């Protein structure tokens, strides 16, 4: 009898949650809509499960570790300096999976305008934003809150808009006027940087500098623009749950607010904003093709009750349209002591599995182990 009662209560709880999720989604106003409405308590759909401790970041700075900051100034003109930078990138990619770059070639004015563009879109009249709100990811421009809203253990305290800028970018008129020009310009600039970073990463793997670009790692570019409104109870939820990235490489622009953390040596370490810097991190697909030489590290974002935070994540993940293009561990990296650790997969298969699984605190890479 008790078991039956418990099962009924569980079913009712799931039904209530489903209704809450649908009601939230139907507003098409996102988390900012809740804040604008004056919410003083975090709705239950955002509250982290008590037993989901893997998904809770530390919340305080770990001063004994510092994410590497790599200065690219002069990397193309001085062979000795070039090798030093490649060595630093190799070490950071093998140990942290994260590093920051400065003097990367993208003007500070472009970075600042990109952040302003994210704010303009998210802080404009909600009725204008609603025109873009959708869960149809085939649309050229998508605005919603939580891509895994209906499958994640808890929703994240953030709204997102995204678009794919390569290999087939949207027409300018398909982008919102609030940020259209800067999206186009920033995409051009970050594409150039991404291709250069893949050259340095190829060298760090002792491969031909063109290797990663030649196999298409930079052919697809997706931009995710995150807006994290201030949270009335930041201790109950997260801006972004613990996860690894789905791509070959991510280039992240964050504002001055902070909150990004990476798991290093079993400790959560802050990645503090550095003026003019971009955060670079290894994605799952690069860990897969490097046969675990480079690591795709777990990371997340804390919620805060001070003010809104914005960031722009640029995902280099190949051309998803090439459904038969297989990516497996690079043969040049094999040895008797280092056999292939993963089966080959397509970008489309990997992305589909990752999105279906959602941000549940486990790595999608486990599913592709050989």
UniProtKB/TrEMBL annotation:
<dbReference type="GO" id="GO:0046872">
    <property type="term" value="F:metal ion binding"/>
</dbReference>
<keyword id="KW-0560">Oxidoreductase</keyword>
<feature type="domain" description="Fe2OG dioxygenase">
    <location>
        <begin position="217"/>
        <end position="318"/>
    </location>
</feature>
<keyword id="KW-0408">Iron</keyword>
<dbReference type="InterPro" id="IPR027443">
    <property type="entry name" value="IPNS-like_sf"/>
</dbReference>
<protein>
    <submittedName>
        <fullName>1-aminocyclopropane-1-carboxylate oxidase1</fullName>
    </submittedName>
</protein>
<keyword id="KW-0847">Vitamin C</keyword>
<dbReference type="GO" id="GO:0002238">
    <property type="term" value="P:response to molecule of fungal origin"/>
</dbReference>
<comment type="similarity">
    <text>Belongs to the iron/ascorbate-dependent oxidoreductase family.</text>
</comment>
<dbReference type="InterPro" id="IPR026992">
    <property type="entry name" value="DIOX_N"/>
</dbReference>
<dbReference type="GO" id="GO:0016706">
    <property type="term" value="F:2-oxoglutarate-dependent dioxygenase activity"/>
</dbReference>
<dbReference type="Pfam" id="PF14226">
    <property type="entry name" value="DIOX_N"/>
</dbReference>
<dbReference type="Pfam" id="PF03171">
    <property type="entry name" value="2OG-FeII_Oxy"/>
</dbReference>
<keyword id="KW-0479">Metal-binding</keyword>
<dbReference type="InterPro" id="IPR044861">
    <property type="entry name" value="IPNS-like_FE2OG_OXY"/>
</dbReference>
<dbReference type="GO" id="GO:0031418">
    <property type="term" value="F:L-ascorbic acid binding"/>
</dbReference>
<dbReference type="InterPro" id="IPR005123">
    <property type="entry name" value="Oxoglu/Fe-dep_dioxygenase_dom"/>
</dbReference>
<dbReference type="GO" id="GO:0009805">
    <property type="term" value="P:coumarin biosynthetic process"/>
</dbReference>
